[in-house]
Each structure stands twice: as structure tokens, then as C-alpha cells.
Automatic annotation (TrEMBL):
GO CC, alphabetical: membrane
Main location group: membrane
This protein's UniProt keywords: Membrane
Localisation: Membrane
UniProt xrefs under Gene3D superfamilies: DD-peptidase/beta-lactamase superfamily (3.40.710.10)
InterPro entries xrefs: AmpC-like, Beta-lactam-related, Beta-lactam/transpept-like
Identification of the protein by name: Beta-lactamase
Pfam families named in the record: Beta-lactamase (PF00144)
Beta-lactamase-related domain: residues covered: 116-434
PANTHER family (UniProt xref): D-ALANYL-D-ALANINE-CARBOXYPEPTIDASE/ENDOPEPTIDASE AMPH (PTHR46825), PENICILLIN-BINDING PROTEIN 4 (PTHR46825:SF11)
Length: 670
């Protein structure tokens, strides 16, 4: 989950997105980092109240596009935690385990935002030194979670298509850098450059595919055919950037690996992963929920007084249901160079490829912390890098769950924490991994935590060119340059259909604009050059810097791209302004239909940028589209990372049509 994807806090979680990823994501009551990854994750502003049988209440937000790249917000009923069930081996990590128990117990017991259940495992070498579950797997049944309780791990699932692809390479069936049309001759898109997409592009978020097929992504009943539906949708879509030009969290890239596996092995992706990966790894508590399970212990979402089971129908990009203990077997295989308990699962070269920095050849990459691997969110985990340690990280978020997976290959150490969304999974994971490395002597001390206080005011550069409207996959931003050299940053608000102020920012001695009341800082980045087709480009990004997770490293991410004025809308598009539209072809069991109640989407414009059309709702979020013709609204931005992640095109059958399509979703005019 991604990849995929402003930093979203965990109290906002659009369901179609994220993944997380992003979802996503990008993590704690979450911070910007989950937005960074995938999706993992959380977006929507619309609040719903969930009640449990103890009459506790929390507010949660849901929206369709939150997915798999970053963790999501607290959507579960507030519950009093059950007792932890633990399995702690003789270990040098007693201090770390005690710290982890304290942090997790605090999360499940937090009266302001309790989490129904959290489960964790930690492995050193070939020994699982800690497994423990906290809270309730079933709220109405008051059934305690155990280490055998399964959770949906979201975009952490992306490691499995990466492994599947490397196994196909080992078998001589594919190569990572061959265009996928060789293996999928039926794959096509409207942009001719689709023929350049390789498997490496799919696995490193660099394919240029629009983002995430939102139709029937999360449901309360299994829905088959998601991957085929995604391929059919892409046949009617354009690329959002050239393959390999930039990396932006993209769930559909991993879904297309499902189709490659099917084409090359004649096995479904779920069956292939079961036989080639899960079975030899003895991951007996892990599977894709392709049907209603007949047994096993599952964490079950409890929403609006009803208990459900969540099905993630995008199997490769975020659909694995697993336990932390099972995932420790995967970790042992990874740092074992492809070998688990004496059996080779994948080549050492394949594991090494997954752990290589895939960003070095990108044309556009203004964020130094983005070090995508194949399947991994980062192969230079920032907090561990601050301690001088190589770490690989993948996070994941679904509509109802948040997960973090850390592998420290040179130390043969790994940790996975998963649970109902609403807790800061990344902060827990970073804190405990660093604590363990200090406790076992890998590092002599923890890295210094970064301050979030603004440095002194300094004389800054001219900023008039930075003023304007910035588009993203979430909602527009407005930057105003004041005469005194300060900035005002606004974001578009759906409730008022106008601008709301984020804050005022002054230039500081570290080269960033800061507010005295905001721990985030901003600046601009301009990326210029020529693309692989020889076309010149010049993009200005609004950059945001935060200190996510446990607070040991900065995360810098572009949150919007400056948009140039266009000619005024023609009459066909003007007539759509103010109209409302409703989704018609999702399954009745789709999570956003059940939870959000299928909110209408609407067309609007911005007075400051009248040549674009704004379309969306709390589910889709709010994107600025470029009118390409009277029947096509095109994508308007190229934003790396997570804020350009799930883009769409709007298609009408005719200028006067009363229905439209976005991806494979059909909306009817109200």
C-alpha cells in the first residue's frame, strides 16, 4: 500500500485511497509520514460517530480513496481493552518489550481515541522473541485478541507481488526491465507510452498509471474480478506521467502484477502466492480473503453498532490477512537472503533487488527521503538512518487497520505491529526498533530527536513567483505572498466551498518558512529539465517538511503543484458547475456505501483559477481537472510521492450526457 499519496492525520481516512497506503497514509493520530507512503494514510473531513456497547463514542472519518499506503484514522468503536496475550521468549530485549507493552496498552486504553486491538511480534535471527496481542478482536462478543488473531495488513501486502515477480525472474519467465506488454499483450492505454511500462516501474511506483481503481476496493463481502476490472479501466485512461519520470504512490501498479502472474503461470495471484510463498514460509495464518472464511480468529470492525468483516479485493496491493507471528517468518526469509529454514524461496539476487534504491534514475524527485525499493516504501528508513543503521520499511492501511513492518537486514532483526486504525503505528515501530538495537548493542545511543520550534527569522528570497494555486490529489492550496516577505497558506474547504487559512509563515534561518504555531515548515522547489521524449518541463512545488513517527528524522514532501491559468470554461463545462452526481455501480456491500451513505459529488470552479473545473466529494476528495474537450476532463498535475497519487479523468459519452465515468465508477446526475 502504495506507496500509494497535506499530511493526513489519522482522524481522516478516505476509503478509496490508501493504502494506504494514501493511503493512505501517510501515520499516528497520524502525521504526514503516512501520507508520504501510502499510503498507508487519511483524508476525509466528514465525521461519523461510532458507538459501542459500552456507550463510549469516538468520531471517525471515512472516504473511499484512503488506502494501503499509509495508516488510517480511528474508525472502530471505542472499547475498553482486553488483557494482552503474550509469548515472550528468553531475550535481551526485556526493556524494549516493557516499553512496547506500555505504549500499546496506552493506545488501546486511551479514553479520547481507544483502539479495539493491536498485535505485535519481534524476531531476532531465527527466534521470535516477542508476540503479544492487546484488546478485543470482537467488540460485541468481548472476545480478546490473541497472537493468532488475523488483521488486514494493507499495503504491507505489496511485498508479496514484489516477491512473486522476483520468483518469476528466477524461473526465467520475466525480466524486471522488459515492457509488460510482452507478458500482457491485452494491456493497453490511451497514451502510447504505456508500451514502455516495465515490471520494475510497477513495483517502484514509477509506472505513470493514474493511481487506484476505487470500485469495490473495500467491501463487507468478497467481490471477485478486481484486477481484471482495473485492467479494463486502464484501457480507457491516459498516463499521468511518463514511465520512470517520477515515483508517486500507485496501487494499480501492483494490481497489474496480479495479471502478469496469471498470464505467466496460469495460476491466480492468490493461488500462486499461497503455493510459492506462504506455504513454504509456513505462514499458516495468512491468506487472501477471496471468500468468507469458515474458520480462524479475525479482528472484526465494529461500526455504527454493527460488526463486519473487511474484504480488500485488491489482493496484490493490499489484500493479505495475516498475523505478526506469520510475518516474522517472512522477515527471516528476507534477511536470510531468500532462504527460510534451509529452503530457498527466492534468489538472494531477488531480495537484493527489492532492497535497492529505485529512485536514482528518476527525472523528478524533489524529496531526498524518498528511497523506494521494490515493494518497500523505503530502503533507507529515515529514523534508522539517523542512527547509522540500514533499515527497510513498509507500512499499510486499509479502511479499518494500520500496520508497520520494519526489517533491519544486517542485524537480522524485524518487527511488525498491526491493529485497528487510530494509533500511531510508525511512532511505535520506530521507537521499539531503535530501543531494541540499543539494547542489543547494535547502536551505542539513540539519535537525537529533532526540534520542532521555529528558528530565528531571516531575510528571505523574493516569493512573488511562488504565489498562486497549487493542485494535489486531495484538494487545492492557495499561497499568498505578503509585502513583508511572509506567506499565507490556505486550503480549499468543501463545507464553505472557499478558502480556509492554514497559517502565516515567515522565512527562517534554515531556509524554510515557519509559523510560531505550526510544527510543519514550507518552501518551494522548482524542477526543470527535459523528459525522455525531449520535451522541456518546469514545475514549481509547494514543499512541506515535518518530523513524523518517533521524531528522529525529517520528511520532506511536495504537497501541491503550481497551476498556470487557462482560458475560461466553455459552455458545456460551465453548465456542469453546481451540478451533483451519485455513484451507481459499486457493490451494495462497498464500505463507503455502507459507512458514508454514498455522498453526492459536485462540480465547482475557483474564482482565482477559472479555467479549471473542481470535482469531488468527501469520498473522492477534490481535484482540479483540465477540460480537454466537452466530453473529457483530464489530470492537471505531476506531483511525486503521495499528493499526486490517485488522479482521475472524467469522461462523458456526449456533451449533454447525464452520467459520467471516473475510472471504472459510474456516476449519475442527481
Amino acid at each position: 500500500m502504495i506507496w500509494g499519496t497535506e499530511a493526513r492525520s489519522k482522524d481522516a481516512a478516505p476509503l478509496r485511497r490508501n493504502c494506504e497506503g494514501r493511503h493512505c497514509h501517510v501515520g499516528g493520530a497520524v502525521a504526514e509520514e503516512k501520507r508520504f507512503f501510502a499510503g498507508p494514510n487519511n483524508r476525509s473531513k466528514g465525521n461519523t460517530v461510532a458507538k459501542c456497547d459500552r456507550n463510549h463514542e469516538i468520531s471517525f472519518s471515512v472516504g473511499r480513496r484512503q488506502f494501503l499506503g499509509y495508516t488510517g484514522a480511528g474508525m472502530l468503536a471505542a472499547v475498553l481493552p482486553g488483557c494482552g496475550n503474550g509469548d515472550i521468549q528468553s531475550t535481551p530485549y526485556q526493556q524494549t518489550i516493557a516499553l512496547g507493552q506500555q505504549m500499546i496498552q496506552q493506545a488501546v486504553s486511551d479514553p479520547s481515541n481507544p483502539v479495539a486491538a493491536i498485535s505485535i511480534a519481534m524476531v531476532k535471527g531465527d527466534t521470535v522473541v516477542w508476540q503479544q496481542a492487546f484488546g478485543l478482536a470482537s467488540v460485541p462478543g468481548q472476545i480478546k485478541a490473541t497472537p493468532q488473531t488475523r488483521f488486514n495488513i494493507g499495503s504491507v501486502s505489496k511485498l508479496f507481488p514484489a516477491l512473486a515477480a522476483t520468483i518469476l525472474v528466477d524461473r526465467g519467465l520475466i525480466t524486471l526491465d522488459t515492457p509488460i506488454v510482452k507478458y500482457l499483450p491485452t494491456f493497453t492505454m490511451l497514451s502510447p507510452e504505456y508500451a514502455q511500462i516495465t515490471t520494475r516501474h510497477l513495483l517502484s511506483h514509477a509506472s505513470g498509471l493514474p493511481g487506484t481503481n476505487g470500485r469495490n476496493l473495500f467491501t463487507f463481502e468478497p467481490v471477485a474480478g478486481y484486477a481484471a476490472d482495473t485492467q479494463a479501466e486502464l484501457a480507457n485512461s491516459h498516463l499521468k506521467h511518463l514511465p520512470g519520470e517520477l515515483a508517486v504512490y500507485c496501487n494499480d501498479g501492483f494490481t497489474m502484477v496480479e495479471q502478469i502472474v496469471l498470464a505467466m503461470t496460469r495460476q491466480s495471484f492468490a493461488d500462486f502466492v499461497q503455493s510459492a510463498i506462504l506455504a513454504p514460509l509456513k505462514m499458516t495464518q495468512s491468506s487472501y480473503l477471496t471468500s468468507v472464511p469458515s474458520g480462524g480468529s479475525f479482528s472484526l470492525p465494529y461500526v455504527n453498532g454493527t460488526q463486519h468483516q473487511e474484504f480488500v479485493n485488491a489482493y496484490a496491493t493490499g489484500g493479505l490477512s495475516s498475523t505478526p507471528g506469520d510475518m516474522m517468518n517472512l522477515a527471516q526469509m528476507i534477511y536470510g537472503g531468500g532462504v527460510f529454514q534451509g529452503q530457498r524461496i527466492v534468489s538472494a539476487a531477488g531480495i537484493a533487488q527489492m532492497g535497492m534504491d529505485q529512485t536514482k534514475s528518476l527525472t523528478i524527485n524533489p524529496s531526498p527521503e524518498w528511497r523506494w525499493g521494490l515493494g518497500w516504501d523505503t530502503v533507507v528508513q529515515p529514523a534508522l538512518n539517523a542512527a547509522g543503521v540500514l533499515g527497510w520499511e513498509k507500512d499499510g492501511g486499509t479502511a479499518f487497520y494500520s500496520t508497520e513492518f520494519f526489517v533491519v537486514p544486517n542485524s537480522q532483526f524485524a518487527l511488525l505491529v498491526t491493529g485497528n486504525a487510530g494509533y500511531n503505528a510508525r511512532a511505535i515501530a520506530e521507537t521499539l526498533v531503535l530501543s531494541a538495537l540499543k539494547e542489543d548493542g547494535t547502536i551505542s545511543s539513540l539519535p537525537a530527536k529533532l526540534g520542532t520550534s521555529a528558528p530565528p527569522v531571516a531575510s528571505g528570497p523574493g516569493i512573488a513567483s511562488g504565489a498562486g494555486i497549487y493542485g494535489s490529489s486531495d484538494l487545492p492550496y492557495q499561497v499568498l505572498a505578503n509585502a513583508d516577505g511572509s506567506l499565507q497558506i490556505n486550503q480549499w474547504d468543501a463545507a464553505t466551498r472557499g478558502w480556509t487559512t492554514i497559517g502565516g509563515y515567515q522565512y527562517r534561518s534554515d531556509g524554510w518558512w515557519w509559523s510560531d504555531t505550526d510544527t510543519a515548515s514550507y518552501r518551494f522547489a522548482v524542477v526543470s529539465g527535459k523528459d525522455t521524449e525531449g520535451n522541456a518541463f518546469n514545475y514549481r512545488y509547494l514543499m512541506k517538511r515535518v518530523v513524523p513517527g518517533a521524531g528522529y528524522a525529517y520528511l520532506t514532501l511536495p504537497v501541491g503543484q503550481q497551476l498556470a491559468p487557462l482560458a475560461a470554461l466553455d459552455s458545456a463545462w460551465q453548465q456542469r458547475v453546481g451540478t451533483q452526481w451519485t455513484l451507481t455501480n459499486d457493490s451494495p456491500s462497498a464500505v463507503p456505501i455502507v459507512v458514508l451513505g454514498n455522498p453526492p459529488a459536485f462540480f465547482a470552479t475557483l474564482a482565482e483559477l477559472p479555467g479549471y473545473v473542481l470535482y469531488g466529494n468527501e469520498d473522492l476528495r477534490y481535484q482540479l481537472f483540465v477540460p480537454v474537450s466537452d466530453t473529457l476532463g483530464g489530470m492537471s498535475i505531476k506531483v511525486p510521492g503521495n499528493f499526486g497519487r490517485d488522479l482521475y479523468e472524467i469522461r462523458f459519452a456526449s456533451p449533454t450526457a447525464t452520467s459520467l465515468t471516473i475510472g471504472s465508477s459510474i456516476y449519475a446526475r442527481i
